[in-house]
Each structure stands twice: as C-alpha cells, then as structure tokens.
C-alpha cells in the first residue's frame, strides 16, 4: 500500500505533457496570430472603481496614443469623447466592465478605420452590435408576449441598422463605385463582345 501511494505521488508530481495541436489546428492558430500581428498594437483598457477606465499599458500616455491610433481617430479629443460614450453604453452593474469596453474597442479596431469618419462609424457599429446581442438575450428570456414583441422589434431594428452601417462604410471607402473587369469573352455566331474594364457607377448611369 505504501508503495502504491508513493507511486501515485510521483505520477501526480510529473508535469503533464503539453497539448500538441493537430496540423489543421496549428494552421488556424498561425493564421490568427498572423492577422493579429499585421494589425496595429492594441493595449486595451482596464477598469478601477476609484479611477475608472485607463489604458492597460505600463506607460499611460503611450497606451492612450496607441488606442487612438488603432481606432482611426486623428485627434485625441475625438477619441477620448468617443471612448467616454462607449463606456456609458456598458452595463455598470456587470463585473466585466473592462471586458465590455474592450470588446467594443476590439470591434472598432477590427474594422480598421482609415479616417475619422470611418472611426466614428466603426464606433457606432460596435455599439449597434453590442445592443443587438443584448436584445437577443432579452428575446431569448422573454416571459410573456409583450416582452417578446418588444425585444423582437428592437432586435430587428438593430439588425437592419447594422446592415445599413456596413453599406455606409462600403460606400465611404469605395465612393459608391463598383468595378467589373471582363478578362475574356468568346461570342459565337457573329455576336459582339466587350473585352476590357467596365465601370458601373453608384447612380445607375448607362454604360
């Protein structure tokens, strides 16, 4: 019996072999790390009941500049105001305030705003997404028909708003233009073919 206990202690003290991802898992992990590395540095935010939100960085000034740069804002004042508004959207009764704010900021950074207009739109999209999920939760937990109808209306409106915001971002980035490239066309029977670049404007002009 003593030998058995000693053997059990030896087994428990032996460190477990680290898990080795499968080739497909390793490929997915490497791809995710590469995407993160290609993006801007994003230190995130931390929350303290006494001081509120602050950049999660060893140097506060550097952390703030990195956050503003990653969010696409040119001026610090615009970013600070937007950051304050995003914090107001967070549920103050939740113990995960920093997670809520960092989630919305990560959404903004993931959109990769290229100017202040895109930065503002990305912040709105982050809020819309957050509230859409809140309404989805309320819809799932509705206890009666009025609660269900109210949550469903809000959920649908927010979903449509998010789709509109995506389209607005696309139009701002590309100027409402769609470019169609015809690389090779073969027409039999004496027909005519167009070979080259064909650009369609956003206002339905004739080509």
Overall outline: globular
Task: Report the mean per-residue pLDDT as an integer.
Answer: 83
Rounded to the nearest angstrom, the radius of gyration is 26 Å
Order of helices and strands: HHEEHHHHHEE
Distance between the termini: 90 Å
**Helix-and-strand structural type:** mainly alpha
Helix proportion: 55-70%
Biggest sheet: strands, sense, closure? 2 strands, antiparallel
Features:
single chain; 207 residues; two-stranded antiparallel ribbon; two-stranded antiparallel sheet; 4 strands
Describe this structure in words.
The protein is mainly alpha-helical. 60% of the residues lie in helices and 9% in strands. It has 7 helices and 4 strands; from the N terminus they run ααββαααααββ. A hairpin with a 3-residue loop joins strand 1 and strand 2. Helix 5 crosses helix 6 (116-140) and helix 6 (116-140) runs antiparallel to helix 7. The longest helix is centred in the C-terminal third of the chain and has 30 residues, at 145-174. It is globular, with a radius of gyration of 26 Å.
List the helices and strands and how they pair.
Blueprint: H1 2-13, H2 23-38, E1 45-48, E2 52-55, H3 60-71, H4 76-89, H5 97-111, H6 116-140, H7 145-174, E3 178-182, E4 196-200
Antiparallel strand pairs: 1-2, 3-4
Helix pairs in contact: 5-6, 6-7
């Amino acid at each position: 019996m003593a030998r058995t206990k000693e053997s059990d202690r030896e087994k428990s003290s032996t460190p477990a072999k680290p898990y080795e991802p499968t080739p497909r898992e390793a490929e997915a992990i490497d791809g995710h790390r590469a995407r993160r590395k290609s993006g801007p540095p994003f230190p995130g935010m931390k929350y303290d009941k006494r001081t509120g939100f602050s950049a999660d960085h060893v140097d506060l000034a550097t952390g703030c500049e990195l956050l503003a740069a990653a969010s696409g804002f040119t001026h610090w004042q615009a970013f600070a105001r937007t950051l304050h508004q995003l914090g107001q959207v967070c549920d103050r009764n939740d113990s995960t305030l920093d997670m809520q704010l960092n989630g919305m900021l990560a959404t903004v950074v993931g959109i990769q705003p290229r100017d202040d207009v895109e930065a503002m739109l990305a912040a709105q999209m982050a809020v819309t997404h957050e509230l859409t999920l809140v309404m989805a939760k309320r819809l799932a937990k509705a206890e009666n028909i009025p609660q269900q109808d109210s949550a469903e209306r809000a959920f649908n409106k927010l979903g449509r708003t998010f789709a509109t915001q995506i389209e607005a971002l696309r139009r701002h980035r590309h100027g409402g233009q769609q470019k169609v490239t015809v690389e090779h066309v073969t027409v039999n029977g004496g027909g005519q073919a167009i070979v080259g670049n064909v650009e369609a404007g956003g206002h339905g002009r004739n080509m």
